[in-house]
Amino acid sequence: MRVFIIAGEPSGDKLGAALMEGLLNLAPEVEFDGIGGARMIEAGLKSRFPMDEISVMGVSEILSQYRHLKRRIRETADQIILEKPDVLITIDLPEFSLRVAKLVKAKSDIRCVHYVAPTVWAWRPGRADKMARHIDQVLAVLPFEPPYMEAAGMRCDFVGHPVVTDPQASAEEAQAFREEYDIGNAPLALVLPGSRRGEVSKLAPVFSDVLKRVLKEKPDLRLVIPAAEPVEDLVRDVAKDWPGPPIIISSENKRLKRVAFKAANVALAASGTVSLELAAAETPMVVAYDMKWLSRVIITRMLKVDSVNLVNLVSETRTVPEFIGDECQPDKIAAGFISVINEPELQKDAMALTMSLLGQGGEAPGLRAARAVLDGLGKK
Asked: How far apart are CA 182 and CA 173, in angstroms?
């Protein structure tokens, strides 16, 4: 069996490697071709070109590299049509992946599988109908997504979220972290202002004001900031005047980041998938997010859900306080933050339920995804 697989971002590379390992486990004769990063290469892929070439985000970045991306899309599609693999698997990165799938479907009957469903449940539901024109099957990472894809005419399998396989720090490691940084039994707050420069620049002043307000009521509060790689320099700069001073963890130290998640009593986080990382570490949280005025107006009007926090959505509760858009104000966030510090146990059940529904304790998502792909091909 021959599989052409495409990933263009680190998260996709992680999903792709786990899926490849699952396929090798269930169908050892499988052969891989495609585009991927270090993890997928280690799993057995010979990438046709560096994954970084298609890892482009943002309108201005896409426009500046439009000709190059368009050429790579055409080259990739032509190669797939020529090679005629049993299945094309595209992982997230719709700007590239779905364009390749569209060209492939226009000139072949190759089965196309897309891994990670678009957030049509939140906004722009029409994307599912457009996908259905050239995607046969979707592998979903959230349990409530299949009905949206199936309504558009695609097969959709919930295969579990990769967060359930992420390693977690032990209580002993967390205690050692507290001792190393002389935290003792003081409350420890994770501060997670985002992974993109725009959101960090927007949220950092708000978070700074929030922390000053909180520290007036909780003067012994300590701060730790695990810096994301793309914004580490910016995070260090904006946090240099924050009270504490904060403990800043380098993006290269993945183990220490896990330990900090476990050691913290509470987190102040930008909205995003980090909420699931916090739930996996059993760290209660407050979520805040804001954007430029025009984006805020447009997205607010397009939103179809009353919460953007995945713990709230997956557990079908609203225990995680959210301060989005107009509500992203320091006084409101600080009040919510203090309430979580005082009653952290209120989120415990919702976080545990979320992890259970995402597949914790069950078969690994990569293996489930592989099984779904093989079943879609009619192979046991």
From this structure: 14
Alpha helices in the chain (DSSP H): 10-26, 38-42, 59-64, 66-83, 94-107, 126-131, 146-151, 171-180, 197-217, 232-238, 254-263, 274-280, 293-302, 310-315, 330-342, 348-357, 365-376
Q: Which of 349, 332, 364 is nearest to 18 (CA)?
A: 364
What is the Cα–Cα distance from 65 to 73, expressed in whole angstroms? 12
Write the pLDDT tens digit of every residue in 215-272: 999 999 999 999 988 789 999 999 988 887 899 999 889 999 999 999 999 999 998 8
- Contact of 361 with 343, CB cutoff 8 Å: no
CA–centroid distance for 272 within its chain: 7
Q: What is the mean pLDDT of the chain?
A: 91
pLDDT tens for 314-373 read 999 999 999 998 899 999 999 999 999 999 999 999 999 999 999 999 999 999 999 999
In DSSP notation, 296-355 reads HHHHHHH--SS---HHHHHHT---S-EEEGGG--HHHHHHHHHHHHH-GGGGHHHHHHHH
Cα 203 from Cα 311, distance rounded (Å): 21
pLDDT tens readout for residues 127-163: 999 999 999 999 999 999 999 999 999 999 999 999 9
State the CB neighbour count (10 A cutoff) for residue 251: 16
Taken as a whole, the chain contains a residue count of 380
Computed on alpha carbons and rounded to an integer, the radius of gyration of the chain in Å comes to 22
Q: How far apart are CA 155 and CA 163, in angstroms?
A: 23
Q: Which amino acid is at 169?
A: A
